[in-house]
Specification:
alpha/beta; two-stranded antiparallel sheet; 11 strands
Length: 186
């Protein structure tokens, strides 16, 4: 049975941080769904149109193997203010599913939900000031702590995506996909 992931999209989402994980996971055979927050026709933070397949509210109680929360300051804020998105994240965190967030999203979306409490995490430089004292801030490009994966920003999107792939489908498949894309150092 194929693994599944959902990537949340909102107006202001950092495009690279949304598209890269979806692309890498598709190459790994993961069934990826793009769910819109606030609409299906969205505008990324750098004016690249993004199109969701469904609204986050339409997902109901479906459980995915991973929830991916891209950053982009405005996009992360829009996701954080969505009851549907936060309920989805909380439900998956409670079930021990992979929660992956990058850039502003660890600080703006996950930290207020308590998802990062007691965990090591990273985020866009400067945003860690939003971490409470229960979160162990790190400066690594990608941090994996249990079922939580966090990363720093657009330049770390590929490393972030490959770590999600590694957690979902195993290191061998992630390495094979990385080699096929000419990514070195995996």
């Amino acid at each position: 049975m194929s693994k599944t992931a959902v990537v949340l999209l909102a107006n202001g989402t950092e495009e690279i941080e949304a598209i890269t994980p979806g692309d890498v996971l598709n190459r790994c055979g993961v069934d990826v769904t793009y769910a819109g927050v606030g609409g299906m026709e969205l505008m990324g933070g750098h004016h690249v149109p993004l199109r969701a397949e469904c609204l986050v509210e339409d997902l109901g109680e479906v459980l995915f193997d991973a929830v991916i929360v891209p950053g982009g300051g405005k996009g992360a804020e829009n996701i954080a203010h969505s009851d549907g998105a936060t309920a989805l994240i909380r439900r998956h965190a409670e079930e021990g599913k992979i929660i992956a967030a990058i850039c502003a999203a660890p600080a703006v979306v996950l930290a207020p939900l308590g998802v990062l409490n007691g965990k090591h995490a990273t985020c866009y430089p400067g945003m860690e000031r939003r971490f409470n004292h229960d979160i162990k801030g790190c400066e690594s490009e990608v941090v994996v702590d249990g079922h939580i994966i966090t990363s720093r920003g657009p330049g770390t999107a590929m490393a972030f995506s490959l770590r999600i792939a590694e957690q979902l489908v195993g290191a061998n498949q992630a390495i094979k996909v990385a080699q096929g894309m000419l990514v070195h150092g995996m």
